[in-house]
Batch of 2 targets.
Target 1
Amino acid sequence: AQSVTQLDSHVSVSEGTPVLLRCNYSSSYSPSLFWYVQHPNKGLQLLLKYTSAATLVKGINGFEAEFKKSETSFHLTKPSAHMSDAAEYFCVVRDNTGRRALTFGSGTRLQVQP
Amino acid sequence: GAGVSQSPSNKVTEKGKDVELRCDPISGHTALYWYRQSLGQGLEFLIYFQGNSAPDKSGLPSDRFSAERTGGSVSTLTIQRTQQEDSAVYLCASSLVWSRELETQYFGPGTRLLVL
């Protein structure tokens, strides 16, 4: 079975400061991990994905995430927040030996203060 | 090229009515998924199609829900005798499956369903 825990339901940062969105996963085998972003009234957009290549993954809009197997974590970071980063972020896991469906975390709402 | 499209974007219906939601995947994508996003349950998987067959229907919440895919392209999700708890955003995703590990699902904008 696979599961995802997003440790913070809300994160608030000031524009220009670093962003850290935390994610822990559980998977019975080597997983694929993803971060998706959802802006208000918009669909889900892929930010980045980990598929057993490099453990540090760079995505769009300056975001990156590091896969740490020993900690079963896949935290999302960005050095400097922008107002346009305000959105809901979902950490997602898929067990590559099981079903193809994605398992989503409960989401973290990021607020960026001016 | 065009992304995944869904129609209608919004649907308001009365309890007990049937509704049909449509998904047009990215051209050439062989895999198609339906998910549901609701306040109480978050984002949940409903059904997966590979071509026209559905090897995984495990997420359909009741027998009022059904889906089909024709021509390996368009898919329709049908909800019969809608209930208020069916109110949610229904999301469709498609992927070009090279390998399980490399697969990436691309999502449409969703259909927001409100059952009165």
Note: The interface with chain B takes residues 32, 34, 36, 42-46, 49, 51-52, 90, 94, 96, 99-107 of chain A (CB under 8 Å).
Target 2
Amino acid sequence: AQSVTQLDSQVPVFEEAPVELRCNYSSSVSVYLFWYVQYPNQGLQLLLKYLSGSTLVKGINGFEAEFNKSQTSFHLRKPSVHISDTAEYFCAVSEGTGNNRKLIWGLGTSLAVNP
Amino acid sequence: GAGVSQTPSNKVTEKGKYVELRCDPISGHTALYWYRQSLGQGPEFLIYFQGTGAADDSGLPNDRFFAVRPEGSVSTLKIQRTERGDSAVYLCASSLYPGVGELFFGEGSRLTVL
């Protein structure tokens, strides 16, 4: 069965610094990859996704992620973070076929942006 | 509606009581999911509806948990004989294209079992 590992549970960073949140998954067979963000006291929302095509995916709020099939990774990056990026970030992998795909989630990475 | 709506936002109950949590998905979304999220954890899949039927209920932890979606829109998650271990945030999500996994989440219902 598919599993998702987010290598850092907490990432503290200063404002305007670059950040990378790491995500690895266990199988590269027919998977779709996602990053979701959960701001304090809000629901989860999609940040970006990889379905096919270019391995570099751009999302909302200046985030991007790169799909690396050989390393089974999908790391999230932002060149310069803001205080407002403070949130919980979840990597997820969609496995299965057709309408029976379901998401397997990592445990999350808490990004804390400090002034 | 504009987004996924979940009620109640907070529910405190006593061990052994019955609880219902409601989800109103985005209009037109045929796929509806229930997840459970405990502190410090990622969402844990419970059940997935495609239309009115449960396409996958493999995540329901035991027979105290049940969910319905009788008209293919609003869904209710029902928990009987609640236990303290059921305390969590219950998330509902809907999707227009379930095959590609893009989900729109509600803000969740926080259940506390005393």
Note: The interface with chain A takes residues 4, 31, 33, 40-45, 48, 50, 55-56, 91, 93, 98-108 of chain B (CB under 8 Å).
